[in-house]
Amino acid sequence: MEQVIYKIINVVNNKFYVGSTTNKKVRFRQHRKLLRGNRHHCKHLQAAWNKYGEDKFEFVVVENVPQDKELWVVEDEWLSKNVGQEHCYNSGYAAVAPWRGVYGSNHPKFGVPQTEDQKEKISATLKEFYAADYFNHPRVGKTHSEETKLKIRQNRTPTAGQNHYRYGKTLSEETKQKIGDAQRGKPKAEGRKVSEQGLLKIKANIEAGRSHKHWLGRKHTDEARQKMSKTVFVMPDGILFPSLSVVLKYYDMTMPTLRRALVSGEPLSKGRLVGYTFKYGGVDSKPTDNDLALIRAKLIDTHPTN
């Protein structure tokens, strides 16, 4: 089996196409068939063939490659020296992947839509290629321009207000239920941690009279007050509370936690109140004197007045 590097030379201007093969007779016949049918993958060679005619091209072996050398390695050396030069018709920079590194209108598939199956195959091939060698990735050693960096920042900045695609729209009950079912039971991220610098800023704001509390100066609507005034029955303590706000103070818990417990109706699964259930009382339900006495005793003990 012979291994050769060959050229298809335009005798009019000495421009050429370079390739490799282990069977020059078959490979030359394939090239001629594609060029005669105006179907060759190298559009520059095809355009020159159409312009000058078949009789102006010669097929010439320029190097015999020893059997102990990889043929594609030798071809890559030829390509690296000549691709991109005015005298070379080739567009691809790699023998094993001729179109790797070729972009835009120079690529034969430019403007041709890909099927999902083709996209998956291309993606898998590229991932394997990039993983094989760090320097295979086209971005290695390159830096973004300031203009590109600005575009990246703008695209990564989350939209809010009227610019958000969900602005002014409400979720249907069915959608809310799907979101709840998908998220329920999943582990939640750790709570927000404030840095030392952040704590210093908060302290400085408080000392300067600038409160960091987002609710300061705002008032609840009548509807919100009515919701918060609903009675809540808590087990295993068996106490009926007059409102949500009293429950929050009594158990020193947050509104999101209480809201989730009320909506789900399930016992809390973690934290110091594991196993506790919180449910709305009836429309006409009212705490008993015993309930109120227990609540007052606990709140006075934990929140004494000066």
What features would you highlight for this structure?
306 residues, alpha+beta, three-stranded antiparallel β-sheet
What does this structure look like?
With 306 residues, the chain is α+β, with helices and mostly antiparallel strands. 41% of the residues lie in helices and 10% in strands. It is built from eleven helices and six strands. The chain has helices spanning 24-36, 43-52, 71-82, 116-132, 146-156, 173-183, 196-207, 222-228, 244-251, 255-264, 289-302, and strands at residues 4-10, 16-21, 57-64, 232-235, 239-241, 277-280. The strands form two sheets. A three-stranded antiparallel beta sheet has the order 2-1-3, sandwiched between helices. A three-stranded antiparallel beta sheet has the order 5-4-6. The model has no long low-confidence stretch (mean pLDDT 84).
